[in-house]
Specification:
Strand order of the largest sheet: 1-2-3-6-4-5
Order of helices and strands: EEHEHHEEHEHHHHHHHH
Largest sheet: 6 strands, mixed
Distance between the termini: 64 Å
Oligomer: single chain
Number of strands: 6
Strand content: 5-15%
Number of helices: 12
Radius of gyration: 25 Å
Shape: elongated
Length: 301
């Protein structure tokens, strides 16, 4: 058992200090420790040991801070977790709430959990594919996780069935496939076109990111040119340009019905517009045609 020094006790529990924290990070106790964390200590942990954690949750932070300040925060079985790499892996929002409220809180703390097991913690409860990607340092993890799902649907011809992929599947797909260049193309580089398409109100950013990536694997220059016209209406000289027709088609679909159009339909129409664009074909005024009862279109190029 590691002998640690701590700051003076608060109530019945030791107040965690930097020296004690470092000692337990270096030689993790077998059991959890119940300790009180002050706002200053919360700030130190967040600044020193909180790298690549999952996205913050402002609503939860405010809720926790209110409870801490009112004295209604209690000692539960929830733990602050540190990995064997000395990184904070669970408890970020509670520490931020402590900092926000200016009040200390008492909690169980666990040390030495294998870092690679982070994505399995509380699985099915609050962690998402986005959280799993964030912990391994993926920027824009929410968009990338959703885009990976669309890539998997497209590549496995499962768009119409809308398969659900587990957090482990998303993380594994990133680590083994999408973190690397495929046909010379990186998925992350397509995110800007996803954001531009969403900003223009044409489709969700994840769909557009995945489609730009898939199109780029066929022809990167043409994919960029397609999205310049589709997302930004640039370099369109003819009414019959597929990029113009798909913009019109989506606008008309949104205006003509109060019901929300399926993302599957958006994806199918955009693929058909791409197929025409990359082949140098025009599209009639009615725009690309596809019904849900039909086979989902294949990406050409």
């Amino acid at each position: 058992m590691v002998k640690v020094s701590v700051l003076p006790q608060r109530g019945h529990y030791e107040v965690l200090g930097i020296e004690a924290l470092n000692a337990m990070l270096a030689s993790p106790p077998i059991a959890s420790r119940v300790m009180t964390i002050t706002p200053d200590m919360a700030k130190y942990i967040l600044e020193t040991h909180n790298l690549h954690n999952r996205p913050k949750k402002p609503a939860k932070i405010s809720e926790y801070a209110t409870d801490m300040h009112s004295g209604s925060w209690g000692l539960t079985g929830d733990t602050i977790k540190f990995s064997d790499l000395r990184l904070l892996r669970d408890g970020q929002n509670r520490l931020l709430a402590c900092l926000k409220s200016g009040d200390p809180f008492t909690t169980h703390i666990v040390f030495g959990i294998e870092d690679k097991l982070f994505h399995k913690m509380d699985i099915g409860k609050v962690r998402t594919g986005s959280d799993c990607l964030a912990i391994v340092g993926v920027k824009n993890s929410t968009l990338i996780a959703a885009s990976i799902r669309w890539c998997l649907l497209l590549e496995n011809d499962r768009v119409k069935t809308r398969d659900v992929y587990t957090n482990e599947s998303i993380l594994r797909a990133w680590e083994t496939i999408y973190s690397k260049p495929i046909d010379g193309v990186f998925l992350a580089n397509s995110a800007k076109w996803g954001a531009a398409s969403n900003k223009a109100g044409l489709c969700g950013s994840a769909i557009a990111t995945a489609l730009h990536f898939m199109f780029s694997r066929k022809n990167q220059k043409k994919a960029d040119a397609f999205f310049e016209g589709f997302a930004k209406a640039l370099n369109i000289s003819k009414e019959s340009d597929p990029r113009n027709r798909i913009r019109q088609k989506i606008a008309m679909a949104k205006d003509s019905s109060g019901t929300r159009l399926s993302e599957v339909s958006y994806a199918a129409w955009i693929i058909l517009a791409w197929n025409a664009f990359q082949a140098g074909r025009s599209i009639t005024a009615s725009g690309p045609k596809w019904e849900v009862s039909e086979m989902f279109p294949v990406i050409h190029g």
